[in-house]
Structures are given as structure tokens and as C-alpha cells.
TrEMBL record:
Region Disordered, residue ranges: 1-31
Organism field: Nymphaea colorata (pocket water lily)
Record field: compositional bias (Polar residues): 10-23
This protein's name: Uncharacterized protein
Length: 31
């Protein structure tokens, strides 16, 4: 769960890349 939270925080920094957001969602489910 900790990893998912860190990914979400990083996603806000890279909010300009919509593809990155999709990757975060996939990583969250994989974790």
C-alpha cells in the first residue's frame, strides 16, 4: 500500500502525462 501512495504523489507531479496516470493505476492493482 505504501508504494501505491508514493505512486499517486508522483503522478501529481507528472500530471501533464495522462499515460503516466494509467501506469499508476495498473501498478496499484498489481501491487
Amino acid at each position: 500500500m505504501g508504494s501505491a501512495i508514493r505512486l499517486k504523489e508522483q503522478n501529481q507531479s507528472c500530471n501533464t502525462k495522462p499515460t503516466n496516470q494509467l501506469n499508476v493505476i495498473v501498478d496499484d492493482h498489481t501491487d
